[in-house]
Amino acid sequence: MRNLKLTLAYDGSDFAGWQVQPDAATIQGTIASAIAQITGETVLPQGSGRTDAGVHALAQVATFATESSVPTANFVKALNDILPSSVRVLKVEEAASDFHARKSARNKTYRYRIFRAAICPPFLARYVWHYPYPLDEPAIIQAAPFLEGEHDFTSFAAVDPERGRDLPVSNVRQIFSSHWERQQDELVYTVSGSGFLHHMVRNLVGTFILVGKGTLQPEDIPRILQARNRSAAGATAPANGLYLVNVDY
Amino acid sequence: MRNLKLTLAYDGSDFAGWQVQPDAATIQGTIASAIAQITGETVLPQGSGRTDAGVHALAQVATFATESSVPTANFVKALNDILPSSVRVLKVEEAASDFHARKSARNKTYRYRIFRAAICPPFLARYVWHYPYPLDEPAIIQAAPFLEGEHDFTSFAAVDPERGRDLPVSNVRQIFSSHWERQQDELVYTVSGSGFLHHMVRNLVGTFILVGKGTLQPEDIPRILQARNRSAAGATAPANGLYLVNVDY
Question: In which residue ranges of chain A is CATH 3.30.70.580 found?
Fold first, then answer.
């Protein structure tokens, strides 16, 4: 029995998110079905975390166990030949039997792209949040590091149906780095941490927008964290600007 | 009555091409319906040329006549507020009454993108032809200029249902420049000319592929032109790598 570790990129636009669902196309379900075609085995690959409908990944990590005789090196091409072009397997490696894509993760990095110019090129529409309205960008940039450190992120967490079942009950997470920067027409947020709660990055972005509009000041972030109340923070930003960039083990 | 000139960008992936059709989403039909919502007038914008299903545009040009009192400057935002994010109006200008998007065009430029690396990022899949197989790229680059000049392009033309009705009967066109270049993982073709026949750029690309595979030599291009026979040239390359880049008047 091998424990295979997949590194995956996907365009989440046409999927109902990572997690398998009975009547919707999901990344997990699509990969499971491609694995079944190759190995004849019914497995559900376990991801480093779920991504929501419309969220993209540059390097999601997932594992599955197989007794198939297919050499590890052949899985990349075999899977990519079956998968839709919106999902690509970048790498397949043999992992230790106790390696777990979510529990073994030490650091996850997400990115959020906001397109700031008046007209968003049609080729970017699926991949950025188009927000052409006035924003105090220096205030947003200044607010970002207030998230760094160990905090209870309840104010930024959506109610999670999985919580307590398989996922940790605590809403305390550690953020290693949190920063915004201007890249040509885009305002880009990059955040790394030990783990992220349901909708957390999108809720952070929605809160940064309130800072950009002047509704909040950068110094309000610690108060919002302390409130441990979802209504203290901003709205959930759209899914299509969000990328799971990578997972470190 | 104003003659308004639109400059448009679109992601052709989800459209059945430029030209209006009864039961399919087309660019022309989508724009006509947005104009109708603004002006209350039923008009069919006339493009510089039709693009096929899946073909993209960076700056297509189209005109429509209007008696509406909406100021020209307001059309960009008004149209973009209605249109899907896959179609963007970049510019709206008042043109002379005798300006015709197709007949007044002096030069059109198309680009074709071939992605050469083994794994095509999911974010590019709609926007390039993924061709990871071996190609003699220097031979392709060498073949390109053989198309320049005035030629009968019958060998590269699909049978066109519109031909002779509204379009010119002759298959003679002038190509001002034709060249391939490597841009990181992409092999990119840029071609400018007085006009292009149905499927012409895609048929040229399919023929360049035969040169890259060694089936044809660069010096075979003049012979293929002289044959004036579609079967002398290569297959039609996929639509999704093709872009109408701009139209000069």
Answer: 2-95
- pLDDT (tens digit per residue) in B127-171: 999 999 999 999 999 999 999 999 999 999 987 666 656 666 799
Using CA coordinates, name the residue in chain A closest to B87.
A122
A107-248 maps to which CATH number? 3.30.70.660
| ipTM confidence | 0.91
Out of 1.20.1290.10, 3.30.70.580, 3.40.30.10, 3.40.190.10, select the CATH number for domain A2-95: 3.30.70.580
Of A11, A76, A119, the CB nearest to B80: A119
CB B155 within 8 A of CB B216: no
Q: What residue type is assigned to position B112 of the chain?
A: Y
Q: Is the pTM of this model over 0.90?
A: yes
Which DSSP string do the residues of B146-171 spell out, in sequence order? GG-EEEE-GGG----TTBTTTB-S--
The Cα–Cα gap between B196 and B110 comes to 9
User: Residues A99-155: pLDDT tens digits?
Assistant: 999 999 999 999 999 999 999 999 999 999 999 999 999 999 999 999 999 999 999
- How close B15 gets to chain A, by Cα (Å)? 13
